[in-house]
Amino acid sequence: xxxxxxxxxxxxxxxxxxxxxxxxxxxxxxxxxxxxxxxxxxxxxxxxxxxxxxxxxxxxxxxxxxxxxxxxxxxxxxxxxxxxxxxxxxxxxxxxxxxxxxxxxxxxxxxxxxxxxxxxxxxxxxxxxxxxxxxxxxxxxxxxxxxxxxxxxxxxxxxxxxxxxxxxxxxxxxxxxxxxxxxxxxxxxxxxxxxxxxxxxxxxxxxxxxxxxxxxxxxxxxxxxxxxxxxxxxxxxxxxxxxxxxxxxxxxxxxxxxxxxxxxxxxxxxxxxxxxxxxxxxxxxxxxxxxxxxxxxxxxxxxxxxxxxxxxxxxxxxxxxxxxxxxxxxxxxxxxxxxxxxxxxxxxxxxxxxxxxxxxxxxxxxxxxxxxxxxxxxxxxxxxxxxxxxxxxxxxxxxxxxxxxxxxxxxxxxxxxxxxxxxxxxxxxxxxxxxxxxxxxxxxxxxxxxxxxxxxxxxxxxxxxxxxxxxxxxxxxxxxxxxxxxxxxxxxxxxxxxxxxxxxxxxxxxxxxxxxxxxxxxxxxxxxxxxxxxxxxxxxxxxxxxxxxxxxxxxxxxxxxxxxxxxxxxxxxxxxxxxxxxxxxxxxxxxxxxxxxxxxxxxxxxxxxxxxxxxxxxxxxxxxxxxxxxxxxxxxxxxxxxxxxxxxxxxxxxxxxxxxxxxxxxxxxxxxxxxxxxxxxxxxxxxxxxxxxxxxxxxxxxxxxxxxxxxxxxxxxxxxxxxxxxxxxxxxxxxxxxxxxxxxxxxxxxxxxxxxxxxxxxxxxxxxxxxxxxxxxxxxxxxxxxxxxxxxxxxxxxxxxxxxxxxxxxxxxxxxxxxxxxxxxxxxxxxxxxxxxxxxxxxxxxxxxxxxxxxxxxxxxxxxxxxxxxxxxxxxxxxxxxxxxxxxxxxxxxxxxxxxxxxxxxxxxxxxxxxxxxxx
Amino acid sequence: xxxxxxxxxxxxxxxxxxxxxxxxxxxxxxxxxxxxxxxxxxxxxxxxxxxxxxxxxxxxxxxxxxxxxxxxxxxxxxxxxxxxxxxxxxxxxxxxxxxxxxxxxxxxxxxxxxxxxxxxxxxxxxxxxxxxxxxxxxxxxxxxxxxxxxxxxxxxxxxxxxxxxxxxxxxxxxxxxxxxxxxxxxxxxxxxxxxxxxxxxxxxxxxxxxxxxxxxxxxxxxxxxxxxxxxxxxxxxxxxxxxxxxxxxxxxxxxxxxxxxxxxxxxxxxxxxxxxxxxxxxxxxxxxxxxxxxxxxxxxxxxxxxxxxxxxxxxxxxxxxxxxxxxxxxxxxxxxxxxxxxxxxxxxxxxxxxxxxxxxxxxxxxxxxxxxxxxxxxxxxxxxxxxxxxxxxxxxxxxxxxxxxxxxxxxxxxxxxxxxxxxxxxxxxxxxxxxxxxxxxxxxxxxxxxxxxxxxxxxxxxxxxxxxxxxxxxxxxxxxxxxxxxxxxxxxxxxxxxxxxxxxxxxxxxxxxxxxxxxxxxxxxxxxxxxxxxxxxxxxxxxxxxxxxxxxxxxxxxxxxxxxxxxxxxxxxxxxxxx
Lengths: 920, 579
What we know:
Radius of gyration of chain B: 32 Å
Oligomer: heterodimer
Distance between the termini of chain A: 68 Å
């Protein structure tokens, strides 16, 4: 018996559905005429039909518009007959004065349906085909009503009363605030409200004095505020809607509906009995909310979601997904304890069997639950909160449990999560944690280095995902693999004997291949879209892109680059690609950008990032979006100077609320450090450097990349302070660390730094081997840009050995010039120009007087670029050389100008001004 | 110390006032306390006259119906001793009488309608109270009507808003008595405004302390000791009852026992106090004492159902099948649709090993009261027995969500996860449970076992837990043995010997024997022998000789080895050969 009512609950009659029914009655009256009464033309009639079609489609959405909103929509659809329509609607409602009227209403509804076997339908008769969309809707309504018990009818009746009353209450205000002619009355009303407010506050103060605490019942002012806000919102919506209807006439119905449904997000405090929808709808809705939490990250207000969830929970206590959503929300607002609590609660209640699409329902063994998924989620949570060891412990347990229960799907995901953890954070004491587990996958790896373990885990995960046809996991594993190939040097895994020639190298082709394989996901998906859709999300797909007008202003107001995202949105609607898929595709673009960055093609990197930001910005998670911003800002700093970069950073900072360890904070410190170094403000540089180091975890082996970067920067700071031996010490120990943790790519840049240190300290002979080693590293790892800059250093070192080597140095430089000019940043280019000039000048066969322009042109170019960079030291050098050349040429005026500039830069270098306080 | 006589007078008057306002459960409670006061044999009066003494003089002058029969000469005395507020209306209006009878017939809306124009404080209270109850009744009905696929919807009492508006207005004008304040407090609490509700209830109990319902509402709002201490309560003996109860809910059992001890001086025959004391003792795990107390309680009050579920828990723990079945039968006959009765029957079936039936009865108890904490936990235990872990976890989690301090349910959750081979996940729950009850060795041992599982094998942590268990006086003696074994496993023989000796001492003191003892003796004998402490080694060996079995042989060979070593034979360690 309970089962019967439950299945019936899948489609409940609500007041909104009754109003749709009333409209349907108008659309297709049972009377026999070609054009029913109020319609003046067939097209008008069809417009209502289209509108009703979209309404019935949207009935599966979680929110239903209020009567008032429905009337507003009717105003646009109905054009000249809107008054008649709304009148009819409200009259029909007011004529429902007892439950018996409802009963009669629904038996009348039967009349507008044609009989199922009707062969003889007259041409001029409008009859709903019972199998059409509208007909099905009517039939479902009638059926649902017939299934209602008398109590249910009573509840429906009382909710209709509320539905109408709300509309009455607000329509008066609505009229007043919307008509410009009556602005005076509106003004009066405002006054009234103010007065009421004053009175309320007075009272509040009074009673506060009396009882010592704020009385509970005085929330009326808030309600008033809310009412006024509501009016404003409606006004806004109306405007946008007008614009839209002008733009695309045929889409009016749909868009206007979107506006209506969007506004309901704010006032979720609708009547409770109306609110409760079917399981499917709520699940789908919660999925959307989860996406929203991920996209907006910490910038979306967690408290509003929280209150909404609370409400939902009290209405549907058995809906456990709410706890998961609350967990997500807490996760993004960085509340560890609440997140943990909610995660555990969710899995305690649901046993992991509810809602996870990664578990095919057929294999779900209900007896034991799916608690391994709980472990997986817990592990990922610890990972996110930065507890790598705890996370690894939990994930190891997840591996074990999923092996025991032979849940291969979960195992594949867990292995992927593990490899992700290892590659992103590393672990402290590798043997103690992994060695303790007896799981075959991890224990074979106990003697291997972290990277090798990552590789094995990835391979295992990929294999399983492939055989289980988990497309998304396959794609993300391919991407992870590409990342791995990009960053880590491959070596034969198990042949460590002396015979195995250890040839370190990376292979761009395989990176490319992995990325390509990852991107196959989208083609897989579009060919068989039905299998990938998740429960419930389809029911709201119809309106998803229509809701965008609400989401859009929040997200895109600060980035002009997202202007043209409407195109993709449109596609989104047509194919309805789930957010997770487009996220993965987006991630592949980001990875492409990263790989180009490493291989040294700045334009390609920038292009890919831009592609990401424009096409995938809407569906991306906040951390990915952060990464994209970071890349673009870094590009700006390198190629346009700091001014632009800091301006962009400011925008990014507003967008992403800076939390403890965010990428934006990291970027800021990096930028400040570079800037301080260039301006010669070494104290500040040192401070930034220390702060950067402070961001890393103190545990050994964790956050290695951050640590390496911090000490690299420290060495550079020391170098700038001319403390060569200390700088060399730091660089040496850094090299050892890199070697210990198998970080090959970092080694190349450390070697270059060592060469640089020796060059600066005037010890060119010592520097040469380092530079050569760095070049050979770069060659085998395909780091072209780094190689070019190492070549430049090598050339500088040769010149340092004496002017008789200037020819060789010039040859080296010219070999690297295309790369440097094509892809190098401002600093590198300027250095190359200056060096070229230096070479010419020190070449005894070169005469300044005959060939001055070659030198001067390069120097001018260099000094311009350095000015943008505010790199005083190099700029001074360039200007000094310029002045010397002018002096030789006898051009006094130009010489004076150059020397004045030179002096300015020197003074700036010696008195490093404090950084603008608003940036620090 | 308050005099018994004055208490008696106060309570008598209070019972009349409370039942006049249809606050029946408070009146019931007061009545129990009234007969709980020790009777002074010298001025023992027949029951019908006892009731008159409490009534005030004015009331008697105007009284209409019942209390006129026997005027008593103690007018002056009663006036002086009774600090009761004078009633604001002397004659119950006819309408009030009608309303009260409607109320007694549970026709709440009708009762409130009758009183719609009455302006006396008493009428206002009864009208509001009837309205509130009508709303509650409708709420219960709606909850069932609106039950959706995702569980019961949280229907609300629709009268709350109007009641709150009216009562707050009354409070502002001061036209509200302490009963009205009590109702206002209840309404505020339902609406979720806890601070104001607390303040209102405090005001109510300060002006009229005899309303036990108000005290219990207040107690349910005191979720921490800070809140409790922050209350501004005026002194009255009712406050001691309140504090005793509140301390108990905050798991401060010794403080609560002290309060009840004090109260027992006045209310020496109060069943309530006895039951509360038994509850506190139960939490302190004094099962024998609790059993005696409950037996006495049942003798005095054989049809009592309240708190009897606790008694059944005690009987369950003592595995007294017959007594438990007797109790179950008795409560079943008294009132089978009380959650307590169902719980007792469930306990009985559980003890008999019929877990499906036990679950059925716990389910019934929960149907009667969805927030019945111990039924959720007990049902969780049953599901664990039935190896249905997901259901067990669900049940435990519900208990925890009703009261997050329920250490049994946290422990159950940990146990369930450990059963499923997720010891690391389980640790979190054990930690939670220990947080709420840090002095229980069983919890520490459970956590230690979790650390000890082969999946985790975190022996150092396990040792720490066992140490804590030992310091909490582990009655079952698992911890010492395990500590010794763990140390032995880790090769720390000194520590191992220390704990084996301790364990041996404990077993000697309790007169226990068994494999643990053999193990300890063998280890100690070999240990001391390898450290050349032959005398100690001999002592342990000779003790071993008292027992038969392989240990005896082992002891013999050990002794032989010792003798040889003592006589100076250098080589041939006999005992190193396999026997």
